[in-house]
Amino acid sequence: MSEDLICTTCGYVGYPKKITKGSFLIELILWCFFFIPGLIYSIWRISSRYKACPECKSATMIPVNTPVGQKLIEDNDSEKVLKQN
Fold it and tell me: Within this chain, do residues 81 and 62 fall inside the same structural domain, yes or no?
């Protein structure tokens, strides 16, 4: 069961997105023409995956129900109120 996370960088609340470093096109070219470099590149891409904020691509998302998460939500809500006034 997943819970909402909050980004400590931009304040986005929601689910993270999986980000894979590198380029699929380069991986495909390497596999087509060079087997060993293609294999090495694929292993690197798979091992460099991380869950990140969909808005800012930062890997600094934490659960909302933690003390820091609650403080970030309170700070973001007060900023939204100030911007509306």
Answer: yes
List CB contacts of 51: < 8 A, sequence separation 6 or more. 16, 17, 18, 19, 59, 61
23 shares its domain with 12: no
> What pTM was estimated for this model as a whole?
0.65
- Render pLDDT for 8-61 as a digit per residue (tens, 0 to 9): 888 888 899 999 999 999 999 999 988 899 999 999 999 999 999 999 999 989
Give the structural domain span for 38: 18-52
Q: Which residue shows structure tokens 């060079």?
A: 34
Record the tokens describing residue 9, joined without a space: 């960088």
